[in-house]
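[Discussion] Sanity-checking designs against the backbone

I'm trying to build intuition for which residues belong where. Below is a structure token string of 174 positions. I'd appreciate it if someone posts a full sequence so I can compare it with mine line by line.
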């Protein structure tokens, strides 16, 4: 098990290979389809994103309502391919990692290689389990989108697997 901290740098990314089991600690950002559409519109209009994207990790998540006494509700990954139309532009802008589930498009794989980024997968259907690795969570933008808002999430030992490494090796094509 490899242990890494965010934000990610090139040395850390280069040391990860497709199939590696990893624990992430630090800040990640949670965003789903609607937030990604907003990111894309902001970038298209040369606006400023609501967070500094350079070196960051986006988790494709839309948490369920938070039960009393908990930090976050169930927070399992959503299907990554739905964000594929937005991901290459975000990677070009400095995003270094995404976390989700499932295969990615060839355009995303190429952007990962070109800009030395990485794609992590995590366990689908395990949102309640994954919530135990969250230490803090707050909505920082797009409040009106509810569970599809932009979240700033501090995680500790969040479990992922390298799905596509910075050389383009893809766990789904082994």
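Best answer:
Here's mine. Compare freely.
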């Amino acid at each position: 098990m490899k242990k890494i901290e965010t934000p990610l740098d090139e040395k850390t990314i280069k040391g990860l290979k497709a199939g590696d089991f990893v624990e992430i600690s630090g800040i990640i950002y949670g965003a789903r389809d609607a937030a990604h559409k907003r990111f894309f519109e902001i970038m298209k209009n040369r606006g400023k994103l609501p967070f500094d994207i350079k070196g960051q990790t986006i988790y494709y998540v839309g948490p369920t309502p938070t039960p009393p006494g908990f930090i976050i509700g169930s927070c399992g990954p959503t299907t990554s391919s739905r964000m594929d139309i937005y991901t290459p532009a975000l990677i070009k802008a400095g995003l270094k990692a995404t976390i989700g589930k499932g295969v990615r498009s060839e355009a995303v794989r190429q952007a990962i290689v070109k800009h030395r980024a990485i794609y992590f997968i995590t366990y689908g259907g395990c949102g309640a389990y994954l919530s135990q690795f969250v230490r803090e969570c707050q909505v920082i933008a797009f409040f009106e989108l509810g569970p599809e808002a932009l979240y700033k999430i501090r995680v500790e030992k969040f479990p992922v697997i390298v799905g596509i490494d910075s050389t383009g090796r893809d766990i789904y094509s082994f």
